[in-house]
Amino acid sequence: EIVLTQSPGTLSLSPGERVTLSCRASQSISSNYLVWYQQKPGQAPRLLIYGATTRATAIPDRFSGSGSGTDFTLTISRLETEDCAVYYCQQCGNLLPYTFGQGTKLEIK
Amino acid sequence: QVHLQESGPGLVKPSETLSLTCTVSGGSISTYYWTWIRQPPGKGLEWIGYIHHTGIINYNPSLKSRVTISVDTSKNQFSLNLSSVTAADTALYYCARHRGTNFDYWGQGTLVTVSS
User: Fold this and answer.
1) Touching check for B47 and chain A: CB below 8 Å?
2) Which of B60, B102, B107 sits opposite A97 (nearest CB)?
3) Are B21 and B79 in contact (CB under 8 A)?
4) What is the least distance, in Å, from the CA of B105 to any CA of chain A?
5) B104, A47: Cβ pair inside 8 Å?
6) Closest of B70, B95, B114, B11 to residue A44, by C-alpha
7) C-beta of residue A59 within 8 angstroms of C-beta of residue A68
8) Partners of A72 in the beta sheet?
9) Contact at 8 Å (CB) between A21 and A38?
10) Is residue A94 pLDDT above 80, yes or no?
11) Is residue B12 scored above 90 in pLDDT?
12) Binary contact (B107, A100; C-beta < 8 A)
């Protein structure tokens, strides 16, 4: 099973700031299979980024993904209050089981 | 626009079977794969399994002995059965569309509590 470790666990930032969230895999995975989701309080997760770098439909270009091998990042270039959420990475490839990271909680001051 | 809606009992007794159905609208269930994910209160996400209408099924090994996922194409629904439940199975259960390398549409989730 591929273990995904996200860091930091929680962070608190101000609107307009730039933030980078990390997702580290216990073994190398294809970039095609690295996914990021956003989960706001009381809501289902929403697809943000797939294939490590491709934004999903209607996702603003403030969100970007990068990385390869075992190290992946999600960057939000200019934080807005609506970005307050928990962000999860997932590996969704041909190695089962699919797994999620434990999440990074982003608070906006 | 694809829409998914989970339905089923919100309370299940220990040792009994949890049964949920996901109804898909706005698209045919005979396209793509379909999946279940759960989230214990205040915790992270756990993938349960997926199904394709052709009969391809895969489960998380941690749950494999207790899980059955099935599909009813005539009703555009797929279902989850989880047997011998305990309090550890208390969670929000989500269904989602599995587009090969990601889950792009999710239901709103349904809370299932295991308690006597």
Assistant:
1) yes
2) B60
3) yes
4) 8
5) yes
6) B95
7) no
8) A23, A67
9) no
10) no
11) yes
12) no
Other residues' Cβ atoms within 10 Å of the Cβ of residue A9: 9
Q: Given CB atoms, is B32 within the 8 Å cutoff of chain A?
A: no
Angle formed at CA B108 by CA B106 and CA B111, multiple of 5 degrees = 120
| pLDDT reading at B100 higher than 90 | no
Q: Please report the sign of the dihedral spanned by the C-alpha atoms of residue B67, residue B72, residue B73, residue B76.
A: negative
Calculate mean pLDDT across residues A31-39. Answer: 97
Number of Cα atoms under 13 Å in the Cβ half of residue A55: 10
Token pair of B4, please?
């998914």
pLDDT tens profile A41-90: 999 999 999 999 999 999 999 999 999 999 999 999 999 999 999 999 99
CB of B44 within 8 Å of a chain A CB? The answer is: yes
List the structure tokens of A35: 């996914």
Q: What are B53-75's pLDDT values in tens digits?
A: 998 999 999 999 999 999 999 99
Give me Rg for the CA atoms of chain B.
13
Mean of the pLDDT values across residues B81-90?
98
